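Sample pair:
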Amino acid sequence: MKIFTFWRSLATYRVRMALNLKGMKPEEITVDLFAGHQMKPEFAAVNPMKAIPVLIDDDGTTLHQSMAIMEYLDEKYPIPPLMPRDPAGRARVRALSMMTVADAHPLVVPRIRSDLASRFGASPEQVTKWAQHWLGSGLDAYEAMLSRDKATGDYCHGDKITLADICLVSHCVGIRFFEGTYDHHPTVKRIVDLCLADEAIARAHPLKQPGAPKPA
């Protein structure tokens, strides 16, 4: 199994958490997003969207998009499960996951930040404010939903880690990258701090990956 990865990629971070929780260690192929390597023809041949992660399973199955990859991993390698068994629970976990995967994160990816700067002349400070706004808006929604819903337990859904927790962790680590905080969202903070205490999730953190900047 192979995964195309980059330390700063939040989407790849999600898949890395799922892989760690499943006890899987694929070969890693770095695609430097900061250097624009995702735009190279050889990578575009792997993923025409020119984005990571991309996972290639041992049988040659090639998958794009973090949510699709994680659901594939959970269905093919079901222990430990990362989705509930009941339809309503699965739908709720998907909905919580998509609040990051589909709503907030796509607005702060490198190609969007680059376009804000090149097309509209946004300064680095303005781009950071943009990211803080959209990720912060997502946190507000997460807090409202998680704090009011009886299905919320120790984690986003019940008392076991699911894909919803993985996506929430990536969201909160992401806002830290843009000088924001989730400290004012108590339900979110409780869940994320619990997740980050899990060794498999802690080991997946972007700043613990090859190529990440060293702590000052």
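The beta strands are 2-5, 27-30, 54-56, 62-64.
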